[in-house]
Write a structure and sequence with these properties.
Blueprint lengths: L1 E4 L5 E5 L2 E5 L21 E3 L5 H4 L2 H8 L2 E5 H8 L4 E5 L4 E4 L2 E7 L16 E7 L2 E5 L9 H7 L4 E5 L8 H11 L3 E5 L11 H10 L3 E3 L6 E3 L1
Parallel strand pairs: 3-4, 4-5, 5-6, 10-11, 11-12, 12-13
Antiparallel strand pairs: 1-2, 1-14, 2-3, 7-8, 8-9, 9-10
The structure holds nickel (II) ion (NI) and manganese (II) ion.
Nickel (II) ion (NI) binds next to loops.
Length: about 220
Amino acid sequence: MKITFLGHATLEIKINEYSIIVDPFISGNPMASEINLDDLKPDFILITHAHQDHTLDVEKLAKQNDSVIVSNFEIVNHFQNKGLKGHPMNHGGKWNFDFGEVKYVNAIHTSTFPDGSNGGQPGGFVISKNNKSLYIAGDTALTYDMKLIALQYKLDLAILPIGDNFTMGYKDAIIASDFLKCNKILGYHFDTFGLIEIDQADAINEFKRVKKELIIIKPMEHITI
Ligand code: NI
Ligand code: MN
């Protein structure tokens, strides 16, 4: 799996020939201004929850690429009503897609669309393929439910929000890493706007102090697991 950071909470996961875009928020993010939406060709678009900083570019990308939208029932319904393709899931359920297995797991957050309509309950994803497993937390607080993931998956990487205020901060992400039994963390959802600015060097050092790895990369940079 190749994981490219596209700014804020947006990711591209490449598995074999498939491109999976998670939570596309690019056209509204000045820190992702070098990314051209037209260059992205997602076969699937995974959405953790309905907030604008996770859904802004879903419609455009899905229309251009005939992508299948994967999210909770309410979010998929919302986009199906606009004529887009979708695969609805709900918490605790998993499905085998062409690119691999996806489980929709709990998150503690909210999930209302920008116009106030119902975006169901927020979630995260565990994606597994070829004995590799990746957890994408979405926007969430630290939660004991993360222990359940460690009971079922041996994670190679966990992608956790570290920006605080709207989600857990990096100190809670260290505890999340314990719950998940995964010491390799890619941090996201930080520094995009004022309320989630962090001291990156301090975050990395806090992880080092407890012999864990916090990876922070710039938009368009990638890591492979
Ligand atoms: Ni949110
Ligand atoms: Mn968010």
